[in-house]
Each structure stands twice: as C-alpha cells, then as structure tokens.
Design brief:
Layout lengths: L1 H39 L11 E3 L11 E7 L2 E7 L5 E5 L9 E4 L4 E4 L4 E3 L5 E3 L8 E7 L2 E6 L1
C-alpha cells in the first residue's frame, strides 16, 4: 500500500515536471516564431478615403515630354506630359511584380526597370513581362491646378 502511494506521488511529480517542460517549450516557440510571422505578414494599412489628389505642381511648371511621380493614396502615380502637351496619369505600379515605373523622355515611353517592361503613353504594355496595361487615372485641370482621381 505504501509502495503504491509512493508510485502515485512519483507519477504526479513527473506529470507536473512534464507539464512545466511542455509549457516552457510552447512559450519558447511562440516567443521565437511570433515576431517572425509578424514581420513576414505586415499589417494592412488603411487606405485613405480620398479618391482625388491635388498635385503640388502647377500646370505651367510641367515641361512637355516629361513625367513625374506622385503619391496617389498609398501607391505611386505617374503624371506624363506628352511632347504634344497632353496630360496623362497612370498608376505607377507595374502590373508584373509591382515595381514603380518611370517615364523615359528619350524614348517617350513608360518603363519598368525591374524586368524591362515597356508601356506606351496610353498605358498599354508593349514589351516585356507585364501582363496588363497600367491602371489609368482621371485628370481634372482647374486653372493651374492638376487634380488626379481614380477612374
């Protein structure tokens, strides 16, 4: 009878030690992997509610055959003034792998430097890996102000 009580006490002690070791390992794994997962999966940023942006440049400041990057909501936008003086705006995010595109004055096209994707001045992809055209943005010119809206 005494031997059986001693065995039960030893088993109870082993269970307590096993529970403490298991809990410690679980806390260790959580403390290691939680920051890694938080880093790899960034939180979603809230999109601004505005759908239009007034650009900081005046219409007269823009040279013909030039392009400028601006911030449209949380993404970059591209404003192009063609050699004929026409304004065009696009999302400056390449449709291939989300790189920022830029206007090339010498070739008069829109270029993604990441994988050599090329778009024409209508935003249509003409060479390289981009699968879709650039997203066009609407423009509204009021006096000397340029306002860009989501189309």
């Amino acid at each position: 009878m005494v031997v059986q009580q001693q065995d039960e006490q030893v088993d109870r002690g082993r269970r307590v030690v096993n529970w403490l070791l298991g809990s410690s390992l679980a806390v260790l794994f959580v403390s290691i992997f939680y920051p890694i997962v938080k880093y790899l999966v960034p939180p979603k940023l809230a999109e601004p509610m505005t759908f239009s942006v007034t650009l900081p440049w005046k219409l007269a400041e823009l040279k013909a055959n030039s392009g400028r990057i601006f911030r449209f909501r949380s993404l970059p936008g591209l404003l192009v003034k063609t050699s004929g003086g026409e304004l065009r705006a696009f999302s400056a995010v390449c449709t291939h792998l989300q790189c920022t595109v830029q206007y090339r004055e010498d070739r008069q096209d829109i270029w993604c430097a990441c994988h050599n994707g090329v778009y024409d001045l209508n935003g249509k992809n003409i060479s390289g890996p981009p699968p879709r055209p650039l997203e066009p943005l609407k423009l509204n010119v009021r006096g000397d102000q340029i306002i860009v809206m989501k189309g």
